[in-house]
Amino acid sequence: xxxxxxxxxxxxxxxIVNQLLLPxxxxxxxxxxxxxxxxxxxxxxIRGAPAIASLAALAVADHLSRGLASTPTPDxxxxxDALRQHVEGVLSxxxxxxxxxxxxxxxxRRLSKALQASAAAGKExxxxxxxxxxxxxxxxxxxxxxNKQMSKxxxxxxxxxxxxQGKSGGNLNVMTVCNTGSLATSGYGTALGLITxxxxxxxxxxxxxxxxxxxxQGSRLTAYELQSLNIPSTMLCDSMVGSLFQHxxxxxxxxxxxxxxxxxxxxxxxxxxxxxxxxARHGIPFIVVAxxxxxxLDIADGGRIPIEQRPAIEACLVRGALHPPTFDANGVxxxxxxxVTPEGLEGVYNPSFDxxxxxxxxxxxxxxxxxxxxxxxxxxxxxxxx
Length: 386
Known about the structure:
By secondary structure, the protein is an alpha/beta fold. 38% of the residues lie in helices and 17% in strands. The protein has helices at residues 34-42, 49-69, 80-95, 102-120, 125-164, 191-200, 217-228, 241-247, 272-282; strands spanning 7-10, 13-17, 28-30, 172-176, 204-210, 233-236, 252-255, 259-261, 266-269, 286-289, 295-296, 317-321, 335-339, 353-356, 363-366, 369-372. A 7-stranded mixed beta sheet has the order 6-5-4-7-10-15-16. It has a 4-stranded mixed beta sheet with strand order 11-8-9-14, with helices on one face. α8 (241-247) packs parallel to α9.
């Protein structure tokens, strides 16, 4: 099976894999403009904090490239002020697609700073646009390397911790939530990258993953990635986590993050907090794996993290392939969306994220290292890893 990817670029074309159709259908959608990028992010055709930041950056690069190649030249390339106003408007628009994921904001702010720096250097509009294109592509390119670095940091830390308890450090069972692999990033992944690293180094016995309803990122995407990597794995319903901890030897929980506050409070896929509470009850290390760009030092704690509320209908529907499998005339597996609740259901609670308090987190891992709390403290000092 070819390497999985969330974004691909070739011959001036920017495309994403439509994750709403995975794992049964692999469909690449062309992102022709910033509106397409906004829709893809908002509708969760692409998801995962690092991946949506990469898409936003590449969409800006593609937009500017098209403008530079256009005849006649767009008005917004007619002067520095016009370019600045136009680009800032585009960045603000993209940021609003999914505000909880701080990586998206970090990418747009980075491009805004690059814009201001090039303008302050006295460059003309076309040169500024070229600088922004280069910066945007760099945002995407940096992701894979840092994912591998943080996965190694986290994996080695876990092995050492298990060894310190008098165990071998091998045959590890690690559970994860949602999807944090290549489909959620530009490659390798964060928490799923840690699991992949343990597998590659012969330390992993089995990966466990929750279905992660209502979008089923676990049962659709994580299952697909683990299967493609030939990593032994077991799926469980979100409500089965406590039972798993009671009856199986789980060595750690590894999750990603959409935003980490200065004290270590972490916003992630809904259901993460539940898993953290149960992990604490059973004495299982709870590890957050995320890039530095996910850490938001401007907010003191998780109480200030905006939590995205998804449309109620999304919690009432399930999409998947027909069973037994049915194929259309082109050999494509047919899929359907079905409603599992009564029509007109009132009172649907459907937040996309929850916040896990730092007190329940054992370690926070970035590409710069591993942070742990001092004895007796409930908050992290993240200074060494940002």
